[in-house]
Write a structure and sequence with these properties.
By secondary structure, this protein is of the alpha+beta class. The chain has one domain: Alpha-Beta Plaits. Helices cover about 30% and strands about 25% of the residues. It comes from Kitasatospora kazusensis.
Length: about 130
């Protein structure tokens, strides 16, 4: 299962506030990711957020099409609330008020995958 990681450029010194924002996160309505026509395009399996100094990283484990995952996230009330709550703490603004802006920001913030290893990818033990 692939992982994606997106970065946020933040103002340092707000660790408690950022932790509270994500601590109050409302989960997405469903882990199933659907296209605009309702077809299943993937699933969001897990997310995690990491923070140090002026960098925050959100890691997403998913199945399916990453673009569809980004579009799905853009429409979720909890994600929209977090993005709005983060605005005062960002050192570089993010255009996430619309689905198109969120997806474009997601793509720009995406880290390149260098390596990804999981026991789920290993062949069964003999």
């Amino acid at each position: 299962m692939p992982f994606a990681a997106i970065t946020y450029d933040i103002k340092p010194g707000f660790e408690a506030e950022l932790t509270e924002i994500f601590g109050n996160f409302r989960r997405v309505r469903s882990d199933k990711v659907r296209t605009e026509t309702g077809e299943e395009a993937g699933r969001i399996l897990a997310t995690a957020v990491f923070l140090r100094d002026d960098t925050m990283v959100r890691v997403i484990e998913y199945q399916g099409d990453l673009d569809a995952v980004a579009r799905h996230m853009a429409s979720q009330p909890g994600v929209r609330e977090v993005e709005a709550s983060l605005k005062p703490y960002l050192s570089r603004p993010r255009d996430t008020d619309t689905v198109e802006g969120f997806v474009a920001t997601f793509r720009r913030s995406l880290l390149n995958t260098v390596a990804q290893i999981s026991v789920r990818d290993a062949p069964p033990a003999a």
